[in-house]
Amino acid sequence: MSNEYKHVLVAVDLTKDSHLVLERALPIAKRNGAKISIIHTLEPLGFAYGGDIPMDLTSIQDQLDSHARERLGEIASPHDIAAEDQYVVVGMPDSEIHRFAAEHDVDLIVVGSHGRHGFALLLGSTSTGVLHGAQCDVLAVRVGADDSEE
Ligand code: AMP
């Protein structure tokens, strides 16, 4: 058994691509005898709506949070990833993934990547954001093509 990685973090957007990303990460974690954690980040509603809507968004955020936890459990639990290793956090994906990785001694982050090109590439992507500024290795798993390519 190689012991190159000790803690693998899988970032998922909760789409069907998440299964592919997780299925690539699992054997790597197993080969290395590494711990595996899975994370989904929820954009803060105040941020999404510019923060200037005069209404309390707390209960909607709570509902989104519990829906995300449920969906994450459906993806992770069949692979024996314990509930305490499944994380839903509020914030922007790249910065929250970096923060989590630093705080939990993650040495490999696994993300999906749509392999964008042209204008879509210029706009950037979560996988690019995660790669830039990561303090550890990042594996970008090629997932389904963008709509623009289909
Ligand atoms: P891209 O299509 O290149 O922007 O990257 C998509 C990948 O970024 C997904 O497969 C996930 O690995 C990751 N990702 C996107 N959104 C999130 C999110 N909200 N939380 C965690 N990971 C995410």
TrEMBL record:
<dbReference type="Pfam" id="PF00582">
    <property type="entry name" value="Usp"/>
</dbReference>
<comment type="similarity">
    <text>Belongs to the universal stress protein A family.</text>
</comment>
<keyword id="KW-0963">Cytoplasm</keyword>
<dbReference type="InterPro" id="IPR006016">
    <property type="entry name" value="UspA"/>
</dbReference>
<comment type="subunit">
    <text>Homodimer.</text>
</comment>
<dbReference type="GO" id="GO:0005737">
    <property type="term" value="C:cytoplasm"/>
</dbReference>
<dbReference type="InterPro" id="IPR006015">
    <property type="entry name" value="Universal_stress_UspA"/>
</dbReference>
<feature type="domain" description="UspA">
    <location>
        <begin position="4"/>
        <end position="142"/>
    </location>
</feature>
<dbReference type="InterPro" id="IPR014729">
    <property type="entry name" value="Rossmann-like_a/b/a_fold"/>
</dbReference>
<protein>
    <recommendedName>
        <fullName>Universal stress protein</fullName>
    </recommendedName>
</protein>
